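Page 37, continued from 36.
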């Protein structure tokens, strides 16, 4: 399965010139020679001054936040990226080794591209990765994963409320908060973006 953001392919990272008024949140721009992803793009009209766009962007490689004011008619380079599904195979130092599900080719992807959600990745899970030519520039884990509880205090009998929480460790070694009725050996669904428990998987 392939996920596309505009046309192109992994070895053909396309760019087009556009006006600032064409930019939307989520777009990837080439800004000052670097690739940035637009997190916020707001139209401003301050009093008698000319309208402009206030942009908040994040450098896709360093993660650094960039803020900039674009003129309404300012030319920008919007990059069109294609992303694909890869299978996570194993950890290799500061990188994760993944395999293209179509060609079986393997790649080393820096852990930092996945952000904090990398803590919940288990070997065999699918991840989404975007490349510029042969260099990975973005990586995304599944938004939800199912993991087994490898350690927790014994469940409180009869307590089925989700308000009272306790600490538990999942099979990737991460400690999360779960309801009191969760037992060691249970499988739970977790939001990888926040680390929050969602539900017990039956």
């Amino acid at each position: 399965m392939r996920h596309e953001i505009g046309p192109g392919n992994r070895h053909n990272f396309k760019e087009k010139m556009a006006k600032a008024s064409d930019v939307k949140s989520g777009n990837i721009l080439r800004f000052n020679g670097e690739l940035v992803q637009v997190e916020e793009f707001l139209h401003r009209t301050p009093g008698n001054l000319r309208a402009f766009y206030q942009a908040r962007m994040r450098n896709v490689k360093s993660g650094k936040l960039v803020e900039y004011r674009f003129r309404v008619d300012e030319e920008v380079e919007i990059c069109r990226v294609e992303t694909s599904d890869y299978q996570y195979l194993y950890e290799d130092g500061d990188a994760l080794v993944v395999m293209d599900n179509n060609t079986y080719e393997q790649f080393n992807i820096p852990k930092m591209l996945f952000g904090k959600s990398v803590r919940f990745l288990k070997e065999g899970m699918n991840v989404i990765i975007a490349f510029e030519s042969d260099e990975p520039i973005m990586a995304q884990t599944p938004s939800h994963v199912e993991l087994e509880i490898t350690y927790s205090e014994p469940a409180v009998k009869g307590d089925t409320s989700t308000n009272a929480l306790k600490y538990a460790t999942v099979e990737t070694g991460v400690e999360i908060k779960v309801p009191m009725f969760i037992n060691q050996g249970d499988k739970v669904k977790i939001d990888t973006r926040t680390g929050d428990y969602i539900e017990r998987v039956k």
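The first strand starts at residue 2 and ends at 5. Flag for discussion at group meeting. The chain has three domains: 2-80, 84-140, 144-201.
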